[in-house]
Amino acid sequence: MTCSCCSFSDQRSRTSCPGRRLGAQLSRSKASLAVPKPSAVHVTAAHRKAYQENGVVHIPGAFGEDWVHYMRDAFQQGMDKPGKYAEFIGKDTTWDTLFGARAKDIEMFQDQVFYQQAAERVPAWLPVFHSHAAHLIAQLMGSARISFFYLHAILKQGGTEQAIPWHQDLPYWKVDGKQIGSVWIALDDMPLAASVRYVQGSHAWGLFRPQHFVDHSSYEGREDLPLLPDVDAMLRQGQAKALAFEVKAGDTLCFDARIVHGSLGNPEARHEHRRVALRFGGDDAVYCNRGGETAIPTPEIDAVHGLRHGDTLNCKAFPQVWP
Ligand SMILES: O=C(O)CCC(=O)C(=O)O
Questions:
Q1: Whose CA is nearest to atom 1 of ligand 1?
Q2: Minimal CB count within 10 Å: which of 86, 100, 129, 152?
Q3: How much is the pTM?
Q4: Signal sequence span per UniProt (predicted)?
Q5: Backbone phi and psi for residue 247, each to the nearest 5 degrees, phi listed first
Q6: What's residue 12's pLDDT?
């Protein structure tokens, strides 16, 4: 099992009455905040153009204050009941202690939440999976339907230098297609210096194996992928352009799973930075057995979803959430 997002150096149809099922699941859980109504978001032609051409678009205020409070509460519940592969990263954390160990003074936290695990572990996430985020990414991708893949939660404590190096998401996921993307939601305000940085247009580059994974995980059997070029050198030499965004809590960054991206630390000593990325697949998204080692889905999910190579991403583990 390898790190879900390289911090070291790195069917269920919505039409089958999600409201009733979600209500039943939530009532079995510990008290969560009331589920907010969808926030009004107007996706424009300019948003679609930016997503298609740059690979990323910033949509301010896509989630209202009520959603931000709701998701911060769910985030805390997720930290209180972490998954098997949650990473509580402190200064003393090494690759060997990445999973399972709880660092005393954590600088960074990462976890993944899959649909069926959420129902057992943090049901408060389920309404977020069924929220207007799915319609938002459907419009940007130009997809008639959207399946939920998983949620990635990240916290960086104030002052941490923990970075997430340049990488693409898709090579480490057992899914393939051009309509696979994330709705990343800020749960705290974050200045430009703390922004996720994206290499403009790099979703059209093809797939690569990041340099840093070589040092920290063998990613066995992934030699099929060429190594990612030295992105910092390309930026310095003007061969590539980085896009970064100052964000307020509730803003979204919607991005293609093939775009090269990464983030630095959290320079705001007194403020923690929490965010979640909802991962979605559109019309052309299929399950893809990449042959070598991957991070997502985790082996436990991979053992139960029942999809075969080339199957459309739509099953109980990765249900359709839009329309
Ligand atoms: O939020 C971050 O710092 C990085 C996010 C990221 O790498 C991702 O969502 O794939």
A1: 196
A2: 100
A3: 0.89
A4: none
A5: -125, 150
A6: 27
The pLDDT score that the predictor gives to residue 313 is 98
The residue type at 35: V
Percent of the chain with pLDDT over 90: 73
Ligand 1: atom nearest CA of 263 is: 3
The Cα–Cα gap between 55 and 198 comes to: 8
Tokens representing residue 78 in the block: 């997720």
> Which residue has its alpha carbon closest to ligand 1 atom 3?
263
Report the alpha-carbon distance of residue 132 to residue 122 in Å, rounded: 19
Average pLDDT over residues 277-304: 94
Q: Is 196 touching ligand 1 by the criterion CB < 6 Å? A: yes
5 lines ligand 1 (CB under 6 A): yes
Q: Is 247 in the pocket of ligand 1 (CB under 6 A)?
A: no
Residue with tokens 């060997």: 96
Strand 108-113 relative to strand 87-89, pairing: antiparallel
From the CA of 48, how far away is ligand 1's center (Å)?
Answer: 21
Q: How far is CA 87 from the centre of its chain?
A: 15
**C-alpha distances out from residue 223 to 39, 71, 213, 261, Å:** 44, 38, 12, 21
* Residue 318 DSSP one-character state: S
pLDDT in tens, 109-127: 999 999 999 989 999 999 9
CATH class of 18-322: mainly beta
How far is it, in rounded angstroms, from Cα 139 to Cα 305? 27
For residues 57 and 47, the answer to whether their CB atoms sit within 8 Å is: yes
Cα 261–chain centre separation: 12
SS3 115: helix
How many other C-beta atoms can be found within 10 angstroms of the C-beta atom of residue 238? 7
**What does the pLDDT read at residue 89?**
87
